[in-house]
Amino acid sequence: MKANYFYNLLFLGFIVIFTSCKEDVKKESVNSSEELNYQSNIEAYFKSNTPSKVDLPYETEEEYQERMQWWKDAKYGMFIHWGLYSQLGGEYKGEVTPKIAEWIQNTLKIPAVEYKKLMETFNATKFSAEEWVSIAKAAGMKYIVITSKHHDGFALFDSKVSDYDVMNTPFGRDVIKELKDECHRQGLKFGLYYSHAIDWDHPQAYIGEGELQNRMNTVDFDPNDMDRSKYLKEKSFPQLKEILTNYGTIDILWFDMGKGLDNEEIREFVKITKELQPNIIISSRIGDEVAPTSLNKDMYFDFFTPSDNYSTGDQFEIPFEMAGTTNSSWGYRKDDKEWREPGFIINSLIASASRNGNYLLNVGPMANGLIPSEPVKNLKIAGEWLKKNGESVYNTTASPFPWNYNWGYVTQNENKMYLNVFNWPKSNRIELNGLLTKADKITALGSSDNLSFTQDGRFLSIDLSTVTKQDFATPIVVELKSAELNIDKKISQNIENDIRLDRITSQYMKDEKLSSWNFTVHTPGKFKIKIVSNEKGNHSKPDWTGADQKGSVQVAGKIIPVSLTRDTEIVNPTLFFYKEIGSNVGEIEFTKKGTYSLQLKGFEIGAGKWTKGLGLNRIELVQK
Ligand code: FHN
After folding, report:
1. What pLDDT digit, counting tens, does each position of 429-439 carry?
2. Which of these, 143, 267, 524, 557, could form a disulfide with 54 (CB 3.0-4.6 Å)?
3. Is residue 200 domain-shared with residue 114, that is, in the same domain?
4. Do residues 435 and 475 make contact, with C-beta atoms less than 8 angstroms apart?
5. Same domain, 527 and 464
6. 154 and 275 in a common domain
C-alpha cells in the first residue's frame, strides 16, 4: 500500500450489523430501512475521507479492496486454540467443564495460583510447526490464525512484558516464531489471535459491569480494585507491540471479545497495530459492537466476525468470516468426539463463500502438540475435494442471487457461475431462476462434456443426468456469454413449481412484526405452506427461540393462523449444532397466474444466534 496514504478507520456495518461478544449477534436487517442506512453509510463513509480524531492513516476504498484481496480470495483458514488449558482437556481434578475447554479456569473458578502450576508441566514433545502447517495446507487452507494469548493471559511467544509465557515452561520454545516461519515457508499467510481485553492473569483487567463480570477473574481479583488503563498500559498494549514487532510480517490480527473497551482504547489498539503492520487485516471483535448506538463512527475493522459456528445466511457487502469448531470446543476437550464431517466442512465453506465470507475452522491441539487424528482425517478428505474442485471456491465472489436454492450454493468468478450441488434433485434437473444473461455452455467442473440445458427467460434448467455425482458436493460450471450479469431479482415460482421465500429476501418491518414477500406464480395450483426456522443459542442446549409466538400467514386473500410445531427437523449443514425446524401451517390455492404477496404477521424475527425473535430461515410453498 502506498506509504503516504492514510489508513482509513474502517467502520463497516456498525449501523446495521452488530455483535455481542459473548459470541456474536447479527441484527436482523433484510431490505429494511436499516439495510438501506447501512449501504448509504458504507458509501458515505468511504467518501467521507475524514481521518479520524486519532492521527491514523486514511485509506481509500480501492486501497482497502486491494489490501483485502488475498484474504477474500483465500476463503478458508485454520484457527488454532492451544495453551495451558490443552493439558486439562476440559477436566480439572475430576470435574468436567460444561463449557468450552479453553474457558476452564473461569468456568470452574480455578484459582490462578493453581492454574499457573500448569506451566510446570507444559512440554509439547510432539509439537511440529511443519506438521501443523502441512495439515492446514493439505486441507486447502490458505492462512492460519493461532492464539498468541488467550483469556488466561498465557503467551505462546517469548514476552519481555510478562514471564507468564511459553519460554518459562519445560517446553521453552517460541511457538509463534516457529509457526510464523513455517507458514511463510509453506506459502500460507499467518495471523495472531490476541485476547486484548480479557486477561485472567492480570489484576487490573477490568471489563465492565453486569454479565461482563463473568469475563473477569473474580476468583483472584476484585473488579472494584481493577483499573483497565493500568492493564492496557502494563500488558495488553506492550504485548501487542511485541507480537507485531518481533516476528516479521503478520497478516491478520484477530482481536476477540472487545466488549467493554471504549473507543479511545480501541483506537489505540488500531494505532499500535497499523503503525507496526500497515497492511494487516483486523477483525471486528476488537470492539464492543453490541449495538449500533454504542459505536461511534470512528469504529473500524476490516472484516466482520458473526457468531461462532453460526451462519445466518445473510450476505454482507463487507467481507465476513465464520469461525467454527471441528467439535464443539475451541481448546482441546478429551470427551468431545463429535467431529465435524467432511461434508459439513465443505458445506460451511461454500455457504460462507456464497455469501461473501470466509470460513475459519478451528483445531484444538492436545498438550503434546499433536492435533487429534479424527479432525486431521476429515480436514484431509475435505482438502482432497478442494484440490479437485477449488475453482468453485477460491478467488470467487458471492452469489448474485438474493435467495438460496434447495440444491446448494452459488459462487461466481467473472463470467463463470459455479452451482455447488449438495442436495441432488430427484428430477436430475436443477435451475437457476432469475438469470437473464445468456448461458454459453454448461459443464460439470473438471469435465469438458457439455450438459444439455434450456433457458427460457428467467428460467435456466440444467440436465444433470449425465453428470457423475461427487462426494459432498458437485460443482456445475455455467459459462455465461457476458460477465455483466443481468438478474431479475423478483421472486418467482421455480421450475419444479415450488415457491421459496427466504428470510433474506423478505421486507421486514420490525415494529409491525411483519415479514412480507412478493412473488409470481406461473403454474397455478394448490400448495402446502411450511415455515422453516433455525434453532439457536448455546451449542450445548440449542433453543428454538421465538417459536412460541402466535401469528398468521396472509396470502391470496386467505388468513391462516400460525402457531409453530416441530413437524420436521434436519441438522442444517452450516449450523453444526443446530437444527432447522419445519412447521406445516396450512394450504393455499393460487387459481391463476400472476403476482401475489404473502405476509407473515405477529412474529418478531431475529436471525442472529443470540437475538430474540424467531430464527426464520424461509417459507416454502410446495405444490401438492
Ligand atoms: O471466548 C472466546 C472463545 O474462547 C474462542 O476463542 C472464540 C473463538 O471465536 N471466541 C470467543 C467466544 O466467541
Report:
1. 999 999 999 99
2. 267
3. yes
4. no
5. no
6. yes
DSSP one-letter code for 293: G
Is 473 contained in some domain? yes
Pocket test for ligand 1, best of 22, 84, 99, 100 (most atoms within 8 A of CB): 100
What is the domain range of residue 572?
499-623
Verify that 510 and 480 share a domain, yes or no.
no
Pocket of ligand 1 (CB under 6 A): 23, 100, 102-103, 256-257, 308, 323, 330
Where is 588: in which H helix or E strand? strand 579-590
Residue 615: CATH number of its domain: 2.60.120.260
Number of domains in the chain: 3
> Which residue CA neighbors atom 12 of ligand 1 most closely?
23
Distance 256 CA to ligand 1 centre (A): 7
Q: Are residues 434 and 295 in the same domain?
A: no
pLDDT digits (tens, 9 = 90+) for 151-173: 999 999 999 999 999 999 999 99
Q: How confident is the model at residue 546 (pLDDT cuts 50, 70, 90)?
A: very high
Point out the ligand 1 atom lying closest to the alpha carbon of residue 103: 4
Q: pTM value? A: 0.91
- The CATH number that applies at residue 191 is 3.20.20.80
Å from CA of 17 to ligand 1 middle: 19
Closest among 218, 215, 194 to 99, alpha carbons compared: 215
CA–chain centroid gap for 253, Å, is: 16
Task: Fill in the amino acid letter for 448.
Answer: S
CB 360 within 8 A of CB 353: no
pLDDT (0 to 100) of residue 64:
86
Phi, psi of 268 (to 5 degrees): -70, -40
What pLDDT, in 10s, does the model give residues 8-32?
Answer: 444 433 333 333 333 333 333 333 3
Centre of ligand 1 from the C-alpha of residue 462, in Å: 43
pLDDT score of 554: 98
- For ligand 1, the distance from its centroid to the CA atom of residue 262, given in whole angstroms, is 20
Domain boundary among 488, 522, 555: 488
Q: How confident is the model at residue 55 (pLDDT cuts 50, 70, 90)?
A: low
529 and 617 inside one domain: yes
Ligand 1 atom nearest 323 alpha carbon:
9
Of 64, 69, 65, give the one whose Cα is nearest residue 5: 64
Tell me, in angstroms, the distance from the centre of ligand 1 to residue 203's CA.
21
